[in-house]
Amino acid sequence: MSGLIYGYIESIGLRREDEAVESHNADVLASLPAYGSYICKEMFAQLPRRRPITYYTQLIHFATEPKELWCMESAWIEQFERLLQRLWWSKAELIETSSGQRFQWCAAREGNSIYTEIPVVSWQRNVFASYHDLPQVSFEQSVS
What we know:
Elements (H helix, E strand, L loop, with lengths): L4 E8 L5 H13 L13 E3 L10 E8 L9 H13 L4 E6 L5 E6 L15 E6 L16
Antiparallel strand pairs: 1-3, 1-4, 2-3, 4-5, 5-6
């Protein structure tokens, strides 16, 4: 059994442009192939832009369990980044459970602008060796 890949793509809502962003992203996801590729349409779902489900962002979540994928292949990342080039987004995160790698993409911004352009073509990718070795956070909860 190989690992799971899961994560989300986030778009910060701009109120007047929310419907256009949601529609654009839905069209891009609908255009993905049904099968035969690392990135397929059925692995994505877009949350409706309604409170209390989403307050300030538009979220696309995804998950897949590819056969015999034990660590993130560069071809998988390339296909994912080609998808990001077509979407309107601000941040994306991905976790691959077999190796424990975590990837994060942050859209480049100019000045105070939330978005530089649609679609986003410039970003910074961060790769973390493992999500397994995160330090424990102390949490106390009293039960009455």
